[in-house]
Design brief:
The complex is a heterodimer. By secondary structure, chain A is mainly alpha-helical. Chain A contains twelve helices and two strands; from the N terminus they run H-H-H-H-H-H-H-H-H-E-E-H-H-H. A two-stranded antiparallel ribbon of chain A has the order 1-2. The longest helix of chain A has 39 residues. The model of chain A has no long low-confidence stretch (mean pLDDT 87). Chain B starts with a helix and ends with a helix. The chains are: A mainly alpha, B alpha/beta.
Chain lengths: 371, 400
């Protein structure tokens, strides 16, 4: 564990940036057609439920140590270590996925002639540097960029509205095929991505200077980011129509590309690119940082700094090798990862841990139950 | 000392990285395409003509730009659009740059065979903006349209885009339709796309000559004309003039237009100009048949009176309003009839049915064309005549 303390407001900002990260960029919940926005809100509710009843309880049992440490306390040293290492690999894999998303987007849209490796390498170098400087630095960068992201979002939002692009009738008819398709999308996608990914904050909550605030900060952060994503999905669907929204790999980019006011406020793709850089940066940074401190924690490194560079390299090469083309990458992300990785690591294992932790702590020190 | 050296090396390194470009492309190496015309090819599938800006000759500097023509048009052919574009590099000294295309012209001949093989290239290419407008070259080739020179606007392509914008706003017989709009209504089962027609009027042989720019009434000029109606990616018919206005009106895109009214036996005695208009379309299913309600509310002022009439009398204004409502209604019903005879739902009534009754829509969506052709459409127009310019009664009173 690094000696770092961050304020509640900083954690809040990190959560918002992390949750919105790549979720705003890719097409989310489009299987539910015009009801995609509902899947986001239901997913958010599910995520908050998961956080409040599972991650938060675990945190309250062990407020001073991260997930990788209390796993060992809960299910024993060796089994716990094994599971903790699996969590670290999981976080690194997710970091690599987001890095790939980010690079893929840039290479398909503006840097069509630049090799993916170069773009990813530049991004990961920046991130390695930030993580090397420590978590407090990352939190402070967050504060800096939070304002910028909101400025971009509000400006973009206003411009889309003033261009007369919003056609709310694209959102109708509501619930055309009933609730089933929506719940399917929620379970298969939006619950786990992005809201279930809050599991990574179980690694970071011990840094919070006032542990009592954790609940409030996390839930409000999830609500804000969930609302933002839902608004973005509403705007995308209303602007592009259901079909184009589903056929476009990056709907927000198309929405912003349609802004035309007068004859000079147009082609604002740069808004999207800026957001992408910021959101991608924080999402990768947080996954990667969690993996780094977890490793340092398990293998008793005095400082996490020595681990930054090698693990950054692993993420970089993982991001290149996890898929040989975008179709493969997207298919893995939508069909394989949620069921085989997200569900066990975000939901099944934490629930199991919670049950064991509950019984262990009841025997040992009953006063800790007052959660 | 060591620190300074490290810092220096770091800065040197960032110089190469932060300049940002993997491959740089200078302005002088790029050919900015502003319009692209696609014709049916002779040997290959497509003949593509590229209208390229000649930047030196359009700059609005104090010297009024250079001497030569503002555009250059190059032609190339290929079985696919990309092949044609790559073939063009054999003829053009610069790299083609697509991000500034404003207009895509498709020839009528090609449109009748189908445009499906063209559209994906325009959607997929990251450089090609989907806000590009599409027009159909009517009675002429797309190449003609692309290579016609225009006075007033130096760049012919700006003439097309500005003209569409102003005619949509002032007359309401044309529509601005971009690639995205076209694709989304093409794949929608409840809507058929309509595109603008463009014609070259006058002597076509003069259209591309610089001498065409030296006279005030040009020998050849471009003119917007009619709406081309598509079904399954194929041009199936034209809706022109008044009927086109009806289409634009139902789509709710008419901002202003003008209507001639007869008064007490005199033809075209009044001209009324709507300045604001709102269209509402809703659908209902009655006894298993779709019934479409079109409600139009417009505000207007009287811009011309060529007969003796007492417009100080509110009752007269009321009568004018009634006449106005009738005339507009007649126009709109005529254009709906026309679309129904083509079996092409350019109005997007199907989408309204979808919203109103998803279950019913599931049954009819696959042959909506037929249902549309027989659908009952109720048109209701409310006119509000507000004022009559800076004169009260016309001078015709005094002539009596």
């Amino acid at each position: 564990m690094e000696e770092a303390k961050i304020k509640g407001s900083q954690l809040f900002i990190l959560i918002v940036l992390f949750e919105m990260g790549s979720a705003l960029v890719v097409s989310l919940g489009t299987d539910a057609k015009q009801d995609a926005w509902m899947t986001i809100l239901i997913g958010m509710a599910g995520g908050i439920f998961l956080y409040y009843f599972v991650y938060n309880r675990l945190f309250l049992f062990y407020p001073d140590i991260p997930l990788t440490s209390y796993i060992q306390k809960i299910i024993g040293k060796w089994l716990g270590r094994l599971l903790a290492i699996m969590y670290i690999i999981y976080f690194m894999y997710l970091a690599a996925r987001v890095l790939r998303d980010f690079g893929e987007l840039l290479t398909t849209t503006i840097y069509s002639n630049t090799p993916l490796l170069i773009i990813n390498a530049l991004m990961i170098l920046t991130i390695v540097y930030a993580v090397h400087k420590g978590f407090e630095v990352v939190a402070r960068i967050g504060e800096l960029y939070f304002g910028l992201v909101y400025l971009l979002a509000l400006a973009g939002f206003a411009l889309v509205i003033f261009s007369g692009l919003i056609h709310l009738e694209n959102l109708r008819p509501m619930l055309e095929n009933g609730w089933m398709p929506i719940l399917k999308v929620v379970a298969g996608q939006t619950l786990t991505f992005p809201f279930g990914e809050m599991i990574v904050f179980t690694m970071l909550l011990p840094y919070l200077n006032e542990p009592k605030k954790a609940k409030l900060v996390c839930i409000s952060g999830m609500v804000l980011s969930g609302l933002n994503i839902a608004i973005a999905v509403v705007i995308n669907t209303a602007t592009l129509g259901v079909d184009l929204n589903a056929r476009s790999p990056f709907p927000l980019l198309n929405t912003i590309g349609k802004i035309q006011i007068g004859n000079f406020i147009e082609r604002l793709d740069v808004f999207f690119m800026l957001y992408l850089m910021i959101g991608g940066f924080f999402k990768i940074t947080i996954f990667y940082y969690a993996a780094v401190v977890g490793t340092a924690d398990i293998f008793r490194f005095k400082s996490h700094k020595k681990l930054c560079f090698p693990m950054g390299l692993i993420i970089l090469f993982a991001s290149m090798s996890i898929a040989s083309n975008y179709a493969e990458h997207a298919k893995e992300g939508l069909k394989v990862v949620p069921i085989f990785l997200h569900w066990p690591f975000q939901i099944l294992i934490p629930v199991m841990l919670l049950i064991i932790a509950y019984f262990r702590n009841r025997k040992k020190k009953p006063q800790n139950q007052s959660t | 000392m060591k620190k300074i050296i490290v810092l220096f090396l770091l800065l040197l390194n960032s110089m190469t990285l932060l300049s940002g470009c993997w491959n740089q492309r200078e302005m002088t190496d790029l050919a900015f395409i502003v319009a692209m015309g696609i014709d049916k090819g002779k040997n290959k599938n497509f003949d593509v003509s590229f209208q390229i800006v000649n930047p030196g000759n359009v700059s609005a500097g104090q010297n009024g730009g250079g001497q030569g023509l503002p555009i250059a048009v190059y032609k190339s052919s290929g079985d696919t659009l990309t092949e044609a574009a790559r073939n063009a590099t054999k003829k053009i000294s610069r790299q083609l740059y697509y991000s500034h295309i404003n207009v895509l012209v498709i020839s009528e001949e090609l449109a009748k065979e189908g445009v499906l093989n063209i559209i994906d290239a325009c959607e997929r290419d990251p450089g090609f903006r989907t806000t590009t407008e599409i027009v159909i070259a009517k009675d002429t080739s797309a190449e003609e349209i692309v290579s016609t020179l225009t006075i007033l606007d130096k760049l012919p392509v700006l003439k097309i885009t500005k003209e569409l914008q102003s005619t949509e706003a002032m007359l309401g017989e044309n529509l601005k339709v971009n690639v995205d709009d076209f694709v989304s209504s093409m794949i929608s089962k409840g809507k058929n796309p309509a595109l603008n027609g463009y014609k070259v009027m006058g002597k076509q042989s003069e259209a591309r000559k610089a001498s065409n720019l030296t006279v005030s009434t040009t020998e050849a000029y471009l003119k917007a004309d009619g709406l081309a109606i598509f079904n399954k990616g194929r041009l199936v018919g034209w809706i022109t003039q008044d009927k086109a206005r009806g289409v634009v009106w139902v789509l709710g895109k008419v901002k202003s237009t003008d209507i001639n009214l007869d008064w007490k036996g005199k033809k075209n005695a009044l001209n009324v100009v709507p300045i604001r208009s709102k269209t509402k379309v809703s659908a209902k299913i009655i006894n298993g048949h779709p019934v479409i309600n079109v409600t139009i509310k417009e505000e207007s002022w009287i811009s011309e009176i060529n007969t003796a009439i007492n417009i100080d009398d509110p009752r007269v204004i009321n009568q004018i309003q009634k006449k106005m409502e009738k005339t507009i209604k007649r126009q709109i019903i005529a254009s709906i009839k026309e679309a129904q005879s083509l079996k092409c739902d350019v109005f997007g009534f199907g989408e309204k049915v979808h919203i109103a009754n998803p279950k019913y829509w599931k049954k009819v969506q696959n042959n909506w064309d037929e249902h549309f052709a027989n659908a009952k459409v109720i048109v209701e127009v409310k006119s509000y005549n507000r004022r009559a310019g800076v004169r009260r009664n016309p001078f015709w009173d005094a002539l009596k």
